[in-house]
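Input protein
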Amino acid sequence: MPKLNLLSGSYTGPGGAGLKLLSFDTSTGAFELVREYPGTPDVSWIAFAPSTSTVYVTDEMAEKVGAFTLSADLGTATPLGYQPTGAKYPCYIRLSPKGTKLATANYGDDSVPVFNLDATTGALKAEPTVLRSAHAHDAGHAHWTRWSPEADRLYTVDLGHDEVRFYPYAGGSLGTEPVIAFSAPKGAGPRHLAFHPNGKFAYLWTEYANVLTALARHPDGTLTPINALSALPPEFNDKSFGAHIEISPKGDAVYVSNRGHNSIAVFGIAADGSISLKQIVSCGGDWPRFFILLGSHLIVANQNSEDLVTFDVAADGTLKANGQVFKLQKPVALLPL
């Protein structure tokens, strides 16, 4: 099996090389560090536009997002410039379906600035459209944003206001009036959302409650609950914080990570969209901020123990550590090229 190139993001502090190139052996689950790209501090999320070979990154602690042209041989990342996000802690970015815009979630308030991109170079243009909630802005914590599978809405998850909302999107233009798609229980702290491959369901993962909620998607963009389950064992009574969520390509399993309990929970997805807990397995390190499914493997990025841990994925979706552990500076994002 061939090796796969991945970009990784790390917290580094000012002046660090948070963007790195890794090589992943798809047969063994082993990693190699190929190179680091200088001038990319505190990369907590990554996006890539193949049409312009542009890599987009957050500089979370400096309140800005940046763009770089990646050379054909992946040897260099040429800066195209950073743009300020207007609020603290930009922690998530997502390209629009046609690659003309970049949406950013600012954890520092409820704002989602949406940048236009240069069609030729991919550079970020100044003066983004800034989307906000209808509530007190400083009480919000925008943590995730993504266009709907039909590309007719931009969704946002706001941890501070315990809600999922969307903004209409048509003809390349965004409506700025927020529509509440789903209200989570007060204090649950919704963090990330994932759309099912069939488009009928969505799954909301909460940071504070450590609860996964299966949701039905409706034509008007709203979401209603199907069922909800904890991702922690009943005997656990310490603090834990939900982090990342990902659905299997076949849509039969959904995975979430628990920081504190330091585990990955695996849920089965039924035909009606409901979930059932299948497994809770140790993440093999400390503080699983991120993970990614890569074929028959799941890779966990453990921020505090500074390592990537490889798991084999069984036919039923359950996980088993395969012994591969790769040391990497505070890893918090991975993206295959």
About this structure: The mean pLDDT is 97. The radius of gyration is 19 Å.
